TrEMBL record, chain A:
<protein>
    <recommendedName>
        <fullName>histidine kinase</fullName>
        <ecNumber>2.7.13.3</ecNumber>
    </recommendedName>
</protein>
<dbReference type="InterPro" id="IPR036097">
    <property type="entry name" value="HisK_dim/P_sf"/>
</dbReference>
<dbReference type="InterPro" id="IPR004358">
    <property type="entry name" value="Sig_transdc_His_kin-like_C"/>
</dbReference>
<dbReference type="InterPro" id="IPR011006">
    <property type="entry name" value="CheY-like_superfamily"/>
</dbReference>
<feature type="domain" description="Histidine kinase">
    <location>
        <begin position="214"/>
        <end position="434"/>
    </location>
</feature>
<dbReference type="InterPro" id="IPR003594">
    <property type="entry name" value="HATPase_dom"/>
</dbReference>
<keyword id="KW-0597">Phosphoprotein</keyword>
<dbReference type="InterPro" id="IPR001789">
    <property type="entry name" value="Sig_transdc_resp-reg_receiver"/>
</dbReference>
<dbReference type="InterPro" id="IPR036890">
    <property type="entry name" value="HATPase_C_sf"/>
</dbReference>
Automatic annotation (TrEMBL), chain B:
<dbReference type="InterPro" id="IPR002645">
    <property type="entry name" value="STAS_dom"/>
</dbReference>
<dbReference type="InterPro" id="IPR036513">
    <property type="entry name" value="STAS_dom_sf"/>
</dbReference>
<dbReference type="Pfam" id="PF01740">
    <property type="entry name" value="STAS"/>
</dbReference>
<feature type="domain" description="STAS">
    <location>
        <begin position="2"/>
        <end position="113"/>
    </location>
</feature>
<protein>
    <submittedName>
        <fullName>Anti-sigma factor antagonist</fullName>
    </submittedName>
</protein>
<dbReference type="InterPro" id="IPR051932">
    <property type="entry name" value="Bact_StressResp_Reg"/>
</dbReference>
């Protein structure tokens, strides 16, 4: 009759009643009762449970499953009190059978399971109930407590791990920052060292300049007195000298003059070195200059059968250049060439390179040439290529370096090529400046110093003033100081790039009128947009044409704007 | 012991029961409700038992008690949200919740209270 026991539970308080009725409902569900019956079962248990509590006793509930019914037995301990009370009556209306065995202190509830539902076995139901097993609230609490403790332990463990990881990270961080600091210190020290080195170098260079300048001055003075005294001695009105004496005195005089020439060259070079060469351009007729050179160098032609050929292309005509400097360079180069040529010819030719707008002077000889290993060294001061001819010829080894400095001061270049035994060719390029510049002030904004130098060279003679800026901010500053007639702007610059610079210019009251030509290293020339240039293969004529166009457009726009007002 | 919160909406108090009520909680709720009706001058009380699955004679008596008590304090009580299974069980138990008005849900409960009031007004 009682069947198989499913589970047991105790009733000792309100919460236990709830637990028991939840349990009852779950069992009803598991054995296959419909939901209304589940509620009935739970409500009946609730009534009985409260009745047990009201009688002041503690109860012990056993759920069991017989063939077609669920049997719930409630034993309420001490047997005191519970007669056929209201709770029992009410419960009786909800379940199929309620029996009270008062003398044994036991109430039995029976609820039939509808036949058409095949209920699972008691074992299955027990397995299902297992998770609910601590049916009393106290047990549940205890279980929850345990779980909480476990979770707490886990949290503590995780915390510990985290702390450990944290410590590791901190240690790593400290180590890294210490290393970084050390590297930093190293860098700072290196910087200081470099600073010191460069200032040492600077002061050494300054000292050298000072030395040269003062030595040259000090040397010149006694030399001129020697020469003057020699002239007095051999000149008319002096005491007559014996032939031998006169010869010796003349030797003294010519040596002193040679020395004076050398000192003069030294002084020039010192001046060039300290960058104090300021060209004073004037209109120079190149043909006349070349002829004058031929006259002065005529005496310098040493060997018989060495011809001096001068060819000046008629298109060179007149050019704006410092005449003294150009003459010095050419004389230096020509006398060098004549010195080291024993047969053949020395040729000076001058023509215009329209692409770069430069006059190219080429001095070629058929002389001894320069061995390859000395090609660069000939531009060092006091260097002379060793050889028999060089021993015979007087020289300081200052000619070429001086010529190169002068060429640079003129805004040009000096290149030398040579083959031993076949001769030497020197190419001097000087900007072919027009009579008067076309445009006033050009600003070149580019972080690439090489390009700025190129632009300056290309604009030489075309623009009166070329200003440079290494980035957008500097360009803005320069333009505010002195508003240019046109700005050449590189698209890619640090700090403020070309596009941003144009934006800033457009926002400025005054600078918005400045025409801009953009330059970029990336664009193909064919693909260049309007008023923009590619750095690759930039030619002077194209640059000048674009600049002219920009200026034209700006002027037209200003007129148009004026008409609108 | 858990306290059941009492919400105020205009002059209506709303009590939503979400837990299994034990004796102590029921007593506390009755006291709280009486105090609040007086202090707020509430004219209606709605007890929402949507979440309650099992209503036994104890809970039934509690609802009747509350209804009678609030009526003495000039507030009508409406029980709303009763589940069908609960209703069936209550009838089977022979409890009719005498003197307790019911409505299907909270909204209808509010309407019912307002009607009652305008009828009085």
């Amino acid at each position: 009759m009682t069947g198989e026991v499913l589970t047991r539970a105790d009733i000792s308080g309100d919460q236990d009643v709830f637990a028991v009725r939840r349990l009852g409902r779950r069992i009803a569900e598991l054995v296959g009762m419909e939901s209304q019956d589940q509620i009935r079962m739970a409500t009946a248990l609730s009534e009985i449970g409260r009745e047990v509590l009201a009688s002041g006793a503690a109860g012990h509930v056993t759920f069991s499953l017989a063939e077609d019914r669920v049997v719930v037995t409630v034993e309420y301990g001490d047997g005191h009190g519970m007669r056929r009370s209201e709770g029992l009556t009410l419960a009786g209306r909800l379940v199929d059978e309620v029996t009270l065995a008062a003398e044994e202190g036991r109430v039995t509830l029976v609820k039939r399971v509808p036949g058409h539902r095949r209920s699972p076995s008691a074992a299955d139901i027990r397995a299902e109930l297992a998770p609910l097993a601590p049916a009393t609230a106290l047990d549940e609490l205890r279980e929850q407590n345990k779980e909480l403790a476990r979770t707490l332990e886990e949290v503590l463990r995780l915390n510990g791990e985290l702390e450990e990881t944290n410590q590791g990270v901190m240690a790593l961080y400290n180590q890294l920052s210490a290393e970084l600091e050390e590297t930093n210190r190293g860098v700072v020290a290196l910087y200081a060292e470099l600073d010191e080195k460069s200032s040492q170098l600077r002061s050494a260079a300054e000292a050298r300049q000072r030395f040269w300048a003062s030595v040259s001055h000090e040397l010149r003075l006694p030399l001129t007195s020697i020469i003057g005294l020699v002239r007095l001695m051999v000149g008319q009105g002096g005491q007559p000298l014996s032939e031998e004496q006169e010869h010796q005195v003349n030797l003294i005089g010519s040596s002193a003059e040679t020395l004076l020439g050398l000192v003069g060259e030294l002084l020039d070079l010192a001046k060039a070195e300290s960058g104090r060469l300021d060209p004073e351009p004037s209109l120079v007729d190149v043909v006349a200059l070349a002829e004058a050179l031929r006259g002065t160098l005529h005496t310098a032609v040493r060997a018989e059968g060495v011809g001096l050929v001068i060819e000046v292309s008629p298109e060179v005509g007149e050019m704006l250049v410092d005449e003294v400097m150009l003459t010095r360079i050419l004389r230096n180069l020509l006398s060098n060439a004549l010195k080291f040529t024993q047969e053949g010819e020395v040729r000076l030719s001058a023509e215009v390179d329209p692409e770069m707008a430069e006059v190219v002077f080429t001095i070629s000889d058929t002389g001894v040439g320069i061995p390859e290993e000395f090609l660069e060294r000939v531009f060092e001061e006091f260097f002379q290529v060793p050889g028999p001819l060089q021993l015979k010829a007087k020289g300081t080894g200052l000619g070429l370096p001086y010529a190169r400095r002068l060429a640079e001061a003129l805004g040009g270049t000096l290149e030398l090529s040579s083959r031993q035994g076949e001769g030497t060719t020197v190419e001097l390029r000087v900007p072919h400046r027009m009579a008067s510049p076309e445009i006033g002030h050009v600003l070149v904004a580019d972080d690439d110093a090489g390009f700025r130098a190129l632009a300056r060279r290309l604009l030489f003679g075309f623009a009166a003033v070329v200003d440079e800026a290494a980035d957008g901010y500097e360009a803005l500053e320069r333009m505010r100081e002195h508003v240019p007639d046109v700005a050449l702007v590189d698209l890619f610059m640090p700090r403020l790039d070309g596009a941003a610079l144009r934006q800033r210019m457009a926002e400025d009251e005054i600078l918005r009128e400045v025409p801009v030509v953009t330059v970029s290293g990336a664009l193909d020339e064919q693909e260049s947009a309007h008023l923009s240039l590619s750095k690759h293969g930039l030619r002077r004529d194209r640059l000048l044409e674009t600049v002219r166009e920009a200026v034209r457009e700006a002027v037209a726009a200003r007129r148009g704007g004026g008409a609108d007002d | 012991m858990e306290r059941v919160p009492i919400l105020k909406l205009g002059d209506i108090l709303i009590v939503s029961i979400q837990i299994d009520l034990d004796d102590q909680s029921v007593l506390t709720l009755q006291e709280d409700l009486a105090d609040t009706v007086v202090s707020r001058g509430a004219r209606g009380v709605i007890i929402d038992i949507t979440a309650v699955e099992i209503v036994d004679s104890f809970i039934g008596r509690m609802l009747s008690t509350i209804a009678a008590m609030t009526r003495m304090l000039d507030a009508e009580t409406v029980v709303v949200g009763m589940r069908p299974a609960v209703a069936i069980t209550l009838v089977e138990l022979g409890l009719s919740l005498g003197g307790v008005r019911t409505a299907l849900n909270l909204e209808k409960g509010v309407v019912m209270l307002e009607h009652a009031r305008s009828a009085e007004g």
